[in-house]
Amino acid sequence: MRILVAGGAGFIGSHFVRQLLGGAYPDLAGAETVVLDKLTYAGNPANLAAVRGHPRYRFVLGDICDGDLVGSLLRGTDLVVNFAAETHVDRSIDDAGAFVRTNVLGTDTLLRAAAGAGSGLRLVHVSTDEVYGSIATGSWPEDHPLAPNSPYAASKAASDLLALSYHRTHGVDVRVTRCSNNYGPYQYPEKLIPLFVTRLLDGRTVPLYGDGGNVRDWLHVDDHCRAVAAVAAKGRAGEVYNIGGGTELANTELTDELLRLLGRDRSSVVRVEDRKGHDRRYAVDPAKIAAELGFRPRVGFADGLAGTVRWYREHRSWWEPLAAAAAAKATENESDRKSTE
Ligand code: NAD
């Protein structure tokens, strides 16, 4: 069996690859694993250092929008897992161009190549709960209409619909997963948990959007990847599977927990203007994947979060260069802005 992992150098994709090659997914055991990744700012070869030199692993530097490359890689491939995406909502608010290109056109390129590769090829398209929009109470089942609000979520919704259309139109074996917010090691320090943890470790303040009442459902990356592996191995073609964590927290509650773990108090929190169009609450109904595939999260939130904080504490050499590069970029943008005023 050969598996192509697109976006395998990012946060979730690299966890999937490390676990896959480490034998964590018995149904996919022994597979030759090829990572295709463009290495954007979010892709990091260091995330795959643990598998470098593994006899069943190969890395290909490239773009999922490159039809020739994708077509050649899919020949002889049995399973594609697509993690490749632009993923940060704030960046999509500043400029959605790269999101439309990678998330929509890139997914279409993978799908076209999958249709050309003929039957026998499975493609798991990894998506997000953000495609459903925002929900005040209750939770979304998989057939809930999509109502994305951010450009990121809209580009992911477009890619989900394209994926499902290739199943209906061309008979491609596509499965779509929609997961809630992930946390864990190796997450680029721009999303809430790694941003707050790394800033608090440096003795700095953390920026909390608006009133901090936005609610997210948190799932450890290890559980997400296990669910993706289950969908790849035992899911049904043309189906969507929600993946949820069952740990709903307002951002204020999560921030308090991080402050506690890092021995700081609320004087470290700076309230900042809310994100434009900020979704209030996400909640997926995870009943289908539990009933069909027997999937349930295993990592308790308290243990998972404490382990994540510990990982960042012990891996400064991983995140310090990323934080420094992000700070230099922010200074450059600010001076560009001033020079054009
Ligand atoms: P990430 O930003 O950490 O990683 C994305 C990876 O894709 C990077 O390695 C990047 O280099 C690569 N990439 C980007 N554009 C590419 C292109 N054109 N060609 C090839 N590679 C490209 O993202 P993540 O947090 O690991 O998310 C992975 C997937 O999971 C995404 O599709 C995202 O929408 C989805 N998801 C993420 C979360 C979350 O909380 N992080 C939750 C639900 C779903």
List the helices and strands and how they pair.
Elements: E1 2-6, H1 11-21, E2 32-37, E3 57-61, H2 67-74, E4 79-82, H3 89-94, H4 97-117, E5 122-128, H5 151-170, E6 173-179, E7 181-183, H6 192-201, E8 206-209, E9 215-220, H7 221-234, E10 240-243, E11 247-250, H8 251-261, E12 269-272, H9 287-293, H10 301-314, H11 316-339
Parallel strand pairs: 1-2, 1-4, 2-3, 4-5, 5-6, 6-10, 7-9, 8-12
Antiparallel strand pairs: 9-11
Describe the structure.
The structure is a single chain. With 341 residues, the chain is of the alpha/beta class. It has a domain at 2-180 and 221-244 and 281-299: 3-Layer(aba) Sandwich (Rossmann fold), CATH 3.40.50.720. It contains eleven helices and twelve strands. It has helices spanning 11-21, 67-74, 89-94, 97-117, 151-170, 192-201, 221-234, 251-261, 287-293, 301-314, 316-339, and strands spanning 2-6, 32-37, 57-61, 79-82, 122-128, 173-179, 181-183, 206-209, 215-220, 240-243, 247-250, 269-272. The strands form three sheets. A seven-stranded parallel sheet has the order 3-2-1-4-5-6-10, sandwiched between helices. Helix 1 (11-21) packs across helix 7 (221-234), helix 4 (97-117) runs parallel beside helix 5 and helix 6 (192-201) runs parallel beside helix 8. It is globular and about 60 Å long. The model has no long low-confidence stretch (mean pLDDT 96). It binds nicotinamide-adenine-dinucleotide. The site of nicotinamide-adenine-dinucleotide (NAD) has 31 residues, from helix 1, strand 2, helix 4, strand 5 and strand 7.
